[in-house]
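Continuing the batch. This is chain 6 of the set; chains 1 through 5 are on the previous pages. Same settings as before, nothing changed between runs. Recording input and output for traceability.
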Amino acid sequence: MSEQEGVTDHLVTIIQLIQLARGSGTLTVWRGTGELFEEGVITFVKGQVTQANAGRRKDHAALNWLSTWGRCRYSFSPAVLDEATKQLLAWLAAGVTQPPRPTTPASSQGPPSAIARGSQPGVAAGGRLQEARTSDASYYAVPCPLLPFQQALSLIEQHRLSRAHRQLFLLIDGRRRVLDLAQLMGKEPQVVHQLLSDLEQRGIIQRKGL
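Output for chain 6:
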């Protein structure tokens, strides 16, 4: 994987994404044209900012200034292609622009009580209630990757799965539940459930806790 380019509405999200992924490389950003043209450069080593320049601003002053930028173009050139930087490049290519938030281990979180589940509107008694409970429980399953990173991405492309499938796979870390993934992607749990089913059918991931 090589240099990755894109457009963002909030540059700080890209900066935070690189920091979170502990990526190493150079982020070049620019906006405006003619006399309004501005450019900045930030260097990262394992997620840490080691140098920043923006016009006459240097280091902290430059980083603070660039963090206020709204819509702009960016280009990230990796310094090394370690696993962390590869994942970062894949996130950028998939359009992940918000840093995934850490989650608590799935073992410490369980399904809601039967009373809470049964109190949902529109759920009838008997068989339909049991069906709803089964569906709810599935949202607390934890998807885990079954293949090495690059092999999984190649298989996703081979099967011509959507960008959403790719983005979802990049967020799977063996700890996040279906509900966590749905929140990160801004999608309904049932939509993420179907995307996971597509990945599972192709041997890319497996859901635990079902």
